[in-house]
Amino acid sequence: MVRRLRGAGVLVTVAAGLAVLAPTAEAQVGGGTWTSDSPGYKTQNVGCGSTSGLTFKLTCSSSSGEQRAERRYDTYTGGTHQFEGSFKITSMTGSRISLKQTFRDGSDSGPYFLLAVENGGRMYAVEGGATLGSGATVGTSVRVNTINQVGTSHKVYINGSLKQTIASPSGSYYDKFGSYRTSSGAGPITVTWSGVKFWHK
Protein backbone atom coordinates (compact mmCIF):
# COMPACT_ATOMS: atom_id res chain seq x y z
CA MET A 1 0.00 0.00 0.00
CA VAL A 2 1.24 3.47 -0.90
CA ARG A 3 0.03 6.56 0.93
CA ARG A 4 0.91 10.09 -0.13
CA LEU A 5 0.76 12.73 2.57
CA ARG A 6 1.47 16.41 2.00
CA GLY A 7 2.82 18.36 4.93
CA ALA A 8 4.27 21.84 5.27
CA GLY A 9 6.42 22.04 2.17
CA VAL A 10 7.26 18.30 2.22
CA LEU A 11 5.78 15.47 0.20
CA VAL A 12 5.92 12.19 2.12
CA THR A 13 5.53 8.86 0.32
CA VAL A 14 5.04 5.85 2.56
CA ALA A 15 5.45 2.45 0.91
CA ALA A 16 5.94 -0.89 2.69
CA GLY A 17 7.05 0.88 5.83
CA LEU A 18 9.64 3.04 4.02
CA ALA A 19 9.29 6.86 4.21
CA VAL A 20 10.94 8.98 1.54
CA LEU A 21 11.11 12.75 1.95
CA ALA A 22 11.18 14.92 -1.18
CA PRO A 23 11.61 18.64 -0.50
CA THR A 24 9.51 21.03 -2.56
CA ALA A 25 10.14 24.68 -3.33
CA GLU A 26 7.26 27.13 -3.28
CA ALA A 27 7.92 30.53 -4.79
CA GLN A 28 6.03 33.65 -3.70
CA VAL A 29 4.47 34.12 -7.15
CA GLY A 30 3.97 32.19 -10.37
CA GLY A 31 2.20 29.12 -8.98
CA GLY A 32 3.26 25.51 -9.21
CA THR A 33 6.32 23.78 -7.83
CA TRP A 34 9.76 25.26 -8.43
CA THR A 35 13.26 23.90 -7.97
CA SER A 36 15.62 26.12 -5.97
CA ASP A 37 18.74 27.41 -7.72
CA SER A 38 22.05 28.71 -6.39
CA PRO A 39 23.71 30.38 -9.40
CA GLY A 40 27.18 31.80 -9.08
CA TYR A 41 27.82 35.51 -9.41
CA LYS A 42 30.46 38.15 -9.92
CA THR A 43 30.52 41.55 -8.22
CA GLN A 44 30.94 44.45 -10.63
CA ASN A 45 31.98 47.91 -9.41
CA VAL A 46 32.66 50.61 -12.00
CA GLY A 47 33.18 54.35 -11.59
CA CYS A 48 31.93 55.53 -8.21
CA GLY A 49 30.14 52.24 -7.51
CA SER A 50 31.00 50.25 -4.38
CA THR A 51 29.64 47.04 -2.87
CA SER A 52 29.63 45.68 0.68
CA GLY A 53 27.74 42.43 1.00
CA LEU A 54 24.24 43.18 -0.29
CA THR A 55 24.62 46.95 0.01
CA PHE A 56 25.30 48.82 -3.23
CA LYS A 57 26.33 52.47 -3.48
CA LEU A 58 26.86 55.10 -6.12
CA THR A 59 28.73 57.79 -4.25
CA CYS A 60 28.91 60.48 -6.94
CA SER A 61 26.42 62.72 -8.74
CA SER A 62 27.99 62.30 -12.16
CA SER A 63 25.48 62.18 -15.02
CA SER A 64 28.06 60.80 -17.45
CA GLY A 65 30.21 57.72 -17.70
CA GLU A 66 29.57 54.27 -16.31
CA GLN A 67 28.59 54.24 -12.64
CA ARG A 68 27.48 50.92 -11.23
CA ALA A 69 27.71 48.48 -8.31
CA GLU A 70 26.09 45.12 -9.03
CA ARG A 71 25.97 41.36 -8.76
CA ARG A 72 25.96 39.63 -12.14
CA TYR A 73 24.65 36.05 -11.94
CA ASP A 74 25.38 33.06 -14.17
CA THR A 75 23.87 32.81 -17.64
CA TYR A 76 20.99 30.42 -18.31
CA THR A 77 19.51 29.19 -21.60
CA GLY A 78 15.93 28.00 -22.05
CA GLY A 79 13.46 26.96 -19.36
CA THR A 80 11.56 29.13 -16.86
CA HIS A 81 13.57 31.07 -14.28
CA GLN A 82 12.41 33.15 -11.32
CA PHE A 83 14.30 35.78 -9.34
CA GLU A 84 13.08 37.15 -6.02
CA GLY A 85 14.58 39.84 -3.82
CA SER A 86 13.65 42.85 -1.71
CA PHE A 87 15.38 46.20 -1.88
CA LYS A 88 15.40 49.07 0.56
CA ILE A 89 16.83 52.45 -0.41
CA THR A 90 18.58 53.90 2.64
CA SER A 91 19.61 57.18 1.00
CA MET A 92 19.01 58.75 -2.39
CA THR A 93 19.59 62.26 -3.64
CA GLY A 94 20.02 61.11 -7.23
CA SER A 95 17.35 59.70 -9.54
CA ARG A 96 16.68 57.24 -12.36
CA ILE A 97 18.84 54.42 -11.03
CA SER A 98 18.35 50.85 -12.24
CA LEU A 99 18.09 48.33 -9.40
CA LYS A 100 17.17 44.99 -11.08
CA GLN A 101 18.02 43.86 -14.59
CA THR A 102 17.41 40.88 -16.85
CA PHE A 103 20.08 40.94 -19.56
CA ARG A 104 20.37 38.95 -22.77
CA ASP A 105 23.62 37.10 -23.35
CA GLY A 106 25.36 35.43 -26.26
CA SER A 107 25.06 36.77 -29.79
CA ASP A 108 22.13 39.02 -28.74
CA SER A 109 23.77 40.35 -25.57
CA GLY A 110 22.53 43.62 -24.12
CA PRO A 111 19.86 45.22 -21.92
CA TYR A 112 16.44 43.55 -22.09
CA PHE A 113 14.56 44.49 -18.89
CA LEU A 114 15.71 47.15 -16.42
CA LEU A 115 13.71 48.12 -13.34
CA ALA A 116 14.65 51.66 -12.27
CA VAL A 117 13.53 54.09 -9.59
CA GLU A 118 13.13 57.86 -9.58
CA ASN A 119 13.65 60.13 -6.61
CA GLY A 120 10.14 60.24 -5.17
CA GLY A 121 9.52 56.50 -5.42
CA ARG A 122 8.24 55.84 -8.96
CA MET A 123 9.41 52.48 -10.34
CA TYR A 124 9.53 52.07 -14.10
CA ALA A 125 10.82 49.91 -16.94
CA VAL A 126 13.73 51.68 -18.64
CA GLU A 127 12.95 49.97 -21.95
CA GLY A 128 9.67 51.62 -22.95
CA GLY A 129 9.25 53.77 -19.83
CA ALA A 130 6.17 51.99 -18.40
CA THR A 131 5.36 52.80 -14.77
CA LEU A 132 5.51 49.63 -12.67
CA GLY A 133 4.67 51.05 -9.27
CA SER A 134 5.24 53.74 -6.67
CA GLY A 135 6.33 53.92 -3.06
CA ALA A 136 10.01 52.99 -3.46
CA THR A 137 10.93 55.76 -1.04
CA VAL A 138 13.82 55.88 1.40
CA GLY A 139 13.36 53.30 4.15
CA THR A 140 10.60 51.31 2.42
CA SER A 141 11.16 47.65 1.51
CA VAL A 142 9.96 46.58 -1.96
CA ARG A 143 9.84 42.96 -3.13
CA VAL A 144 10.62 42.24 -6.78
CA ASN A 145 9.99 39.00 -8.66
CA THR A 146 10.81 38.39 -12.30
CA ILE A 147 9.78 35.22 -14.14
CA ASN A 148 11.43 34.63 -17.50
CA GLN A 149 9.87 31.82 -19.51
CA VAL A 150 12.46 31.85 -22.25
CA GLY A 151 10.90 31.99 -25.68
CA THR A 152 7.49 33.00 -24.29
CA SER A 153 7.22 35.81 -21.72
CA HIS A 154 8.99 37.84 -19.04
CA LYS A 155 6.82 38.88 -16.08
CA VAL A 156 7.52 41.48 -13.39
CA TYR A 157 5.85 41.44 -9.99
CA ILE A 158 6.08 44.23 -7.39
CA ASN A 159 5.13 43.21 -3.85
CA GLY A 160 3.38 40.15 -5.26
CA SER A 161 1.31 41.96 -7.91
CA LEU A 162 1.88 41.39 -11.63
CA LYS A 163 2.91 44.72 -13.18
CA GLN A 164 4.28 43.87 -16.62
CA THR A 165 4.34 41.05 -19.16
CA ILE A 166 6.53 41.33 -22.26
CA ALA A 167 7.66 38.87 -24.92
CA SER A 168 10.78 36.84 -24.17
CA PRO A 169 12.79 35.84 -27.25
CA SER A 170 14.59 32.51 -27.20
CA GLY A 171 18.25 32.57 -26.22
CA SER A 172 20.42 33.14 -23.16
CA TYR A 173 19.85 35.51 -20.21
CA TYR A 174 21.24 36.45 -16.82
CA ASP A 175 20.05 38.39 -13.75
CA LYS A 176 21.70 41.41 -12.17
CA PHE A 177 20.80 43.60 -9.20
CA GLY A 178 22.40 46.45 -7.31
CA SER A 179 22.56 50.08 -8.46
CA TYR A 180 23.27 51.23 -12.00
CA ARG A 181 23.12 54.76 -13.40
CA THR A 182 20.77 54.87 -16.39
CA SER A 183 21.62 57.09 -19.36
CA SER A 184 19.35 59.80 -17.94
CA GLY A 185 20.18 59.27 -14.26
CA ALA A 186 22.72 60.13 -11.58
CA GLY A 187 23.54 59.18 -7.99
CA PRO A 188 24.16 59.25 -5.15
CA ILE A 189 22.17 56.27 -3.88
CA THR A 190 22.61 53.55 -1.28
CA VAL A 191 20.40 50.48 -1.57
CA THR A 192 20.41 47.21 0.35
CA TRP A 193 18.96 43.97 -1.01
CA SER A 194 17.70 41.02 1.08
CA GLY A 195 15.87 37.73 0.67
CA VAL A 196 17.49 37.00 -2.70
CA LYS A 197 16.33 33.65 -4.15
CA PHE A 198 16.34 31.88 -7.50
CA TRP A 199 14.22 29.02 -8.86
CA HIS A 200 13.57 27.22 -12.13
CA LYS A 201 11.03 24.78 -13.52
Task: Supply database-style keywords.
eight-stranded antiparallel sheet; disordered N terminus; globular; single chain
Please tell me about this protein's structure.
Keywords: Signal. Residues 1-27 form the signal peptide. It comes from Amycolatopsis heterodermiae. This is LamG domain-containing protein. This protein is an all-beta fold and 201 residues long. The chain is 0% helix and 64% strand. It has one domain: Jelly Rolls, CATH 2.60.120. It is globular and about 40 Å long.
- Could you say how many structural domains there are in total? 1
Q: Characterize the overall form.
A: globular
Total count of helical runs of at least 4 residues: 0
Structural class: mainly beta
CATH class: Mainly Beta
User: How much helicity do the residues have?
Assistant: under 10%
Major beta-sheet overview: 8 strands, antiparallel
- Indicate the proportion of strand residues: over 45%
How would the blueprint of this fold be written?
Layout: E1 2-6, E2 10-15, E3 18-23, E4 35-37, E5 41-46, E6 49-52, E7 55-58, E8 68-73, E9 76-77, E10 80-92, E11 95-105, E12 110-117, E13 123-125, E14 131-133, E15 141-149, E16 153-158, E17 161-167, E18 172-186, E19 189-200
Short description:
Keywords: Signal. With 201 residues, the protein is an all-beta fold. It has a single domain (25-200), classed as Jelly Rolls (Sandwich).
